[in-house]
């Protein structure tokens, strides 16, 4: 209090007396605004002697701690060395809540079976419930503000006590704070300047800016909104350290979080104002610092009126203003999530206050912190890595790749040593592939593109567009996935499926060129090496254009669907054969013969393609379509059940799992595609093109593709096998010829 001008002299409290707490037990005192004219000082284990005076007013009707203590004192008066009469006063109702009535504390203590004030864990839980219920839902039961919500009455009661001279306001840390010098810290009232961030008009401007600004994730936007709702007066000055002097009071410096909130605007003209890093040498315009008056800054940065009293030539002022208008607003500000509650929100406020709307920031991206191998980085534990150490250990590009793979968004990312180690091998393998394909280019196939060529081309063109979307959204982990992993998967499939005729020379080169460009933002050095040394492209990859599809390009979703279908079908067939192998082993253990021997020298398969879905599925989809609301994108489950019951389908155990699957598909591919249920490519033709690769991959003698109708007419398989086929999901019959 001596440091907050409450008692004199300031900074030098005078000791008047010294006494033990036990000496005042049983003393009669007057509690401010109490119903009882006098109360007694009583012992309580939960009161902190270091907090305030160490004496608090007890409210056993509302505070579980106070009520539990009162009951202890009544039951064990001798143990606590008190006169039983001192604890004889009954709790007085102070407020009422809809959940607990007028005696919140007794109700909670009984409900939670709290036996004494020593039950600190349950008392802490009860306290949170009581105070939250009382503050947000309670109403006053007594006093001047009876009937008023507690949330409104609390500050008024505080003010009445101060006005009556029964209390004074002071501040203290909510917990023990130790300085670097080892001293205990107290709150001192100092001369201070504040920025009134809670001012209504200014806050409305900040909210408007936030609404227009891209935050890249809903979590980040919600975090900004929460800060705008609580941020109020902020102390913006300090008397020591580094920083800019407060213009209207030079004895103060702008504190670090409040400083440099619009510094990026200076970047747009810094090259014109000075020619060196520290600003000691004037720039090409010959402007000196004293010439940059407030009026000049308003003209250049804030679209203010022309500064007629400036001695800077008009053409130079126009150049400054043009440079700022050309480069501003900033496209993105990237920073840590811990700065949202202060520095980044200050930047929002100050941009809203100082700049016209056309110069407000376009986006701010907040990221989480970086963990190392799944644990928080800390020098004290040795789990720590500097950027230089990482580059020395893995190289720049492998480090960048591992960082991109570490994670995006506001959650903490994780840099993994194993990923960095694997990145070195992955990049060397990539370089090796590009070099080998460049050396073998003359041996590749030329001429017209085959179906497999077109599928491959469509896939890497589509992946390039997908990667671009991820980069624009600053989702680098997703960009890495589509730019490298999925692109190489598409290449591996193409290389395998064209094992007979070989890969197309032009496509391989186009693919490598695209791959180098997609990876350039993450692995610039490797991409540059591939671009200049292997592909022999002119200029640097840093000046090359993004591999967008040409204007004449027509997207072919049927090719993408066919590529996905071929890979999925082959995996299903492989899994089916593995299952048959397990069944054979089980049959062998039981002594019975197996219908199909996967280990036999000769193996064949019939693939059955369905042209239509089962009738029960069509009926289910039609019922879903009728229950789907296009405006809200929701499905009326009650309507679905009524329709199913009316058609006698509700008891079919296949129906509900199928409907749940279709709901999931709506979320993935949209309602229109889900309800259409038609393949956009010829399933039979695609499978026939795949026959050579199926034979090679599964080591089959013969592969026959036929429709379900053809199979039924030739009795090529039992009906149970044919019924399993659906459009897009063929069934198989393996056999030994």
Give your account of this protein's structure.
This protein is 46% helix and 7% strand. The chain has 737 residues and is mainly α. The strands form 8 sheets. A 3-stranded mixed sheet has the order 12-11-13. Helix 12 crosses helix 13, helix 14 packs parallel to helix 18 and helix 19 crosses helix 24. The chain is extended and about 105 Å long. The model has no long low-confidence stretch (mean pLDDT 90).
Structure described in brief:
With about 725 residues, the chain is mainly alpha-helical. β15 and β16 (about 635) form a beta hairpin. It starts with about 25 loop residues before the first strand and ends with a strand.
What labels describe this entry?
737 residues; 18 strands; extended
How would you name the oligomeric state of the polypeptide chains in this document?
single chain
Helix content: 40-55%
What is the global morphology? extended
Largest sheet: 3 strands, mixed
How is the secondary structure organized here?
Layout: E1 28-29, E2 39-40, H1 64-75, E3 95-96, H2 104-111, H3 120-137, E4 139-140, H4 150-163, E5 194-196, H5 200-212, H6 218-230, E6 233-235, E7 237-238, E8 253-254, H7 264-267, H8 270-273, H9 294-301, H10 314-327, E9 333-336, H11 340-354, E10 364-367, E11 370-372, E12 375-376, H12 387-394, H13 396-405, E13 413-415, H14 417-439, H15 451-472, H16 476-497, H17 505-519, H18 524-534, H19 557-590, E14 604-609, H20 615-627, E15 628-629, E16 634-635, H21 637-646, H22 655-669, H23 671-676, H24 683-698, E17 702-707, H25 708-714, H26 719-723, E18 731-735
Parallel strand pairs: 9-10, 11-13, 14-17
Antiparallel strand pairs: 1-2, 3-4, 5-6, 7-8, 11-12, 14-18, 15-16
Helix pairs in contact: 1-2, 2-3, 5-6, 5-11, 6-11, 9-10, 12-13, 13-14, 14-18, 15-16, 15-17, 15-19, 16-17, 17-18, 19-24, 20-21, 20-22
């Amino acid at each position: 209090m001596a440091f907050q001008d409450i008692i004199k002299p300031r900074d030098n409290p005078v000791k008047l007396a010294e006494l033990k707490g036990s000496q005042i037990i049983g003393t009669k005192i007057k509690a401010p605004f109490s119903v009882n004219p006098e109360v007694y000082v009583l012992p309580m284990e939960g009161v902190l002697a270091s907090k305030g005076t160490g004496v608090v007013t007890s409210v056993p009707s509302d505070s579980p701690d106070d009520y539990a203590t009162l009951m202890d004192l009544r039951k064990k008066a001798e143990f606590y060395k008190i006169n039983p009469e001192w604890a004889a006063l009954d709790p007085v109702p102070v407020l009422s809540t809809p959940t607990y009535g007028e005696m919140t504390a007794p109700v909670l203590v009984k409900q939670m079976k709290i036996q004494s004030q020593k039950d600190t864990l349950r008392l802490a839980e009860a306290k949170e419930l009581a105070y939250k219920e009382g503050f947000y839902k309670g109403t006053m039961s007594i006093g001047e503000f009876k009937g008023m919500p507690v949330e409104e009455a609390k500050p008024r009661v505080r003010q009445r006590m101060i006005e009556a001279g029964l209390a004074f306001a002071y501040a203290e840390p909510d917990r023990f704070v130790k300085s670097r010098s080892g001293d205990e810290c107290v709150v001192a009232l100092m001369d201070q300047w504040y920025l009134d961030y809670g001012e209504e008009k200014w806050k409305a401007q900040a909210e408007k800016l936030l609404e227009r600004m891209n935050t890249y994730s809903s979590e980040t936007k919600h975090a900004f909104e929460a800060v705008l709702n609580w941020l109020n007066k902020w102390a913006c000055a300090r008397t020591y350290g580094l920083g800019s002097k407060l213009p209207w009071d030079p004895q103060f410096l702008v504190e670090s979080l409040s400083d440099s909130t619009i510094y990026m605007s200076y970047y747009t003209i810094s090259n014109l104002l000075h020619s060196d890093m520290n600003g000691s040498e004037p720039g090409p315009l010959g402007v000196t610092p004293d010439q940059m008056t407030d009026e000049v800054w308003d003209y250049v940065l804030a679209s203010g009126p022309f500064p007629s009293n400036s001695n800077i030539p008009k053409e130079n002022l126009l150049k400054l203003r043009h440079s700022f208008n050309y480069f501003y607003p900033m496209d993105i500000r990237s920073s840590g999530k811990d700065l949202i509650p202060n520095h980044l929100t200050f930047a929002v406020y100050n941009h809203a206050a100082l700049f016209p709307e056309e110069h407000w920031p376009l986006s701010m991206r907040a990221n989480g912190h970086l963990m190392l191998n799944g644990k928080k980085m800390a020098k004290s534990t040795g789990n720590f890595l500097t950027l230089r150490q990482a580059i020395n250990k893995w190289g720049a590009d492998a480090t960048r790749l591992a960082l991109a793979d570490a994670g995006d968004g506001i959650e903490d990312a994780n840099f993994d040593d194993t990923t960095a180690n694997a990145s070195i091998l992955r990049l060397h393998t990539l370089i090796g592939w590009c070099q080998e394909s460049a050396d073998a280019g003359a041996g590749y196939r030329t001429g017209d593109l085959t179906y497999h060529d077109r599928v491959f081309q469509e896939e890497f063109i589509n992946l390039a567009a997908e990667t671009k979307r991820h980069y624009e959204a600053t989702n680098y982990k997703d960009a890495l996935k589509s730019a490298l992993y999925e692109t190489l998967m598409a290449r591996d499939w193409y290389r395998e499926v064209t094992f007979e005729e070989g890969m197309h020379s032009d496509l391989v080169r186009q693919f490598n060129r695209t791959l180098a460009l997609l990876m350039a933002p993450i692995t610039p050095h490797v991409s540059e090496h591939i671009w200049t040394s292997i592909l022999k492209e002119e200029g640097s990859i840093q000046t090359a254009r993004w591999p967008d599809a040409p204007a004449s390009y027509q997207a072919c979703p049927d090719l993408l669907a066919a590529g996905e279908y071929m890979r999925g079908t082959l995996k299903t067939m492989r899994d089916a054969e593995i299952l048959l192998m397990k069944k054979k082993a089980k049959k062998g253990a039981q002594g019975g013969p197996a219908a199909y021997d996967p280990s036999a020298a000769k193996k064949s398969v019939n693939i059955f393609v369905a042209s239509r879905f089962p009738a029960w599925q069509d009926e289910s989809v039609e019922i879903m379509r009728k229950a789907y609301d296009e405006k809200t994108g929701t499905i009326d489950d009650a309507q679905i059940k009524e329709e199913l019951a009316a058609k006698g389908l509700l008891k079919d155990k296949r129906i509900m799992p199928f409907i749940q699957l279709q709901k999931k598909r709506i979320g993935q591919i949209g309602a229109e595609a889900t309800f259409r249920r038609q393949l956009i490519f010829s399933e039979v033709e695609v499978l026939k093109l795949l026959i050579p690769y199926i034979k090679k991959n599964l080591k089959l003698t013969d592969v026959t593709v036929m429709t379900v109708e053809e199979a039924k007419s030739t009795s090529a398989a039992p009906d149970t096998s044919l019924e399993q086929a659906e459009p897009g999901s063929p069934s198989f019959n393996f056999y030994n010829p």
